C-alpha cells in the first residue's frame, strides 16, 4: 500500500518547479477558491497545517489572511521549492497518512486537492488523523474534484509522471468526515471553470466539536 506514496513523491519531485510556475497566480483568477479559503480563515484560530502543500501557494495565502500557517508535503522537491519561494514560512516533509504532529496541536488543517492521491479505502484513516491533531473547535478544509473515478496520469506539467488521482463523491467524503467525529459546517459543489477544469469542484469545511 506504500507504493502509491513512492509514486506520488517521485512524480511531484519531478514536476515541482514547473508546477509552481504554472499555478503561482492561479488564486488571483479564481474567486471561488479565494472565497472558501476566506471563510475557513474567518472560522479558524491557532496554528494551521496545509497538508499536501506543494510549492506553498495555499500556505502563503492563508498566512496573508492572518493565519499562523505552515506547510507539510510528501515531496522533498516541493518542500524545497516552497522554502525558496516563501522564505518567511515553515515547510516540512511529511505524509498525511501518518502526520508527525501532537494530538490537539492545531487550530486548522487544510488538504487542498491533496487527498485525491490517497486510495479511497484509506480516507477514513486520514480523516481520523486530521481529527487527532486538531484542538477542540478546530476546523478542517478539504478541496477535491467531484465525481467517482480513478485516473492514472502519465504526463503532467511538461514531464512524464506516474500519478493516480481520484475524483471523489462529496456525499461520501462528507459521511466519512462525520464518521471521524467532525461536525459539517459547509459543503460547496461548483461548476467547472473552463478551459482547465473538466468536472465539478467540491469544498468541505468541518469542525471538531468542543
UniProtKB/TrEMBL annotation:
Keywords: Methyltransferase, Transferase. One of its GO terms (biological process) is methylation. The keyword Transferase applies. CDD domains: AdoMet_MTases (cd02440). InterPro entries: Methyltransf_25, SAM-dependent_MTases_sf. It holds the Pfam family Methyltransf_25. It comes from the Bacteria. Residues 48-138 form the Methyltransferase domain. GO terms for molecular function: methyltransferase activity. This is Methyltransferase.
Amino acid at each position: 500500500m506504500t507504493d502509491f506514496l513512492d509514486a506520488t513523491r517521485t512524480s511531484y519531485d519531478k514536476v515541482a518547479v514547473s508546477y509552481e510556475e504554472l499555478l503561482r497566480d492561479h488564486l488571483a483568477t479564481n474567486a471561488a477558491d479565494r472565497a472558501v479559503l476566506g471563510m475557513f480563515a474567518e472560522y479558524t484560530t491557532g496554528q494551521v497545517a496545509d497538508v499536501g502543500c506543494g510549492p506553498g501557494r495555499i500556505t502563503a495565502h492563508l498566512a496573508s489572511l492572518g493565519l499562523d500557517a505552515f506547510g507539510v508535503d510528501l515531496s522533498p522537491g516541493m518542500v524545497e521549492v516552497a522554502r525558496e519561494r516563501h522564505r518567511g514560512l515553515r515547510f516540512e516533509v511529511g505524509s498525511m497518512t501518518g502526520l508527525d504532529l501532537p494530538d490537539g496541536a492545531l487550530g486548522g488543517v487544510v488538504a487542498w486537492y491533496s487527498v485525491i492521491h490517497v486510495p479511497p479505502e484509506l480516507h477514513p484513516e486520514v480523516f481520523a488523523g486530521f481529527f487527532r491533531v486538531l484542538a477542540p473547535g478546530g476546523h478542517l478544509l478539504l478541496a477535491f474534484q467531484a465525481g467517482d473515478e480513478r485516473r492514472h496520469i502519465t504526463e503532467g506539467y511538461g514531464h512524464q509522471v506516474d500519478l493516480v488521482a481520484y475524483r471523489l463523491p462529496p456525499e461520501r467524503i462528507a459521511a466519512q468526515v462525520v464518521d471521524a467525529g467532525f461536525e459539517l459546517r459547509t459543503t460547496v459543489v461548483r461548476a467547472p471553470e473552463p478551459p482547465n477544469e473538466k468536472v465539478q469542484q467540491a469544498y468541505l469545511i468541518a469542525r471538531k466539536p468542543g
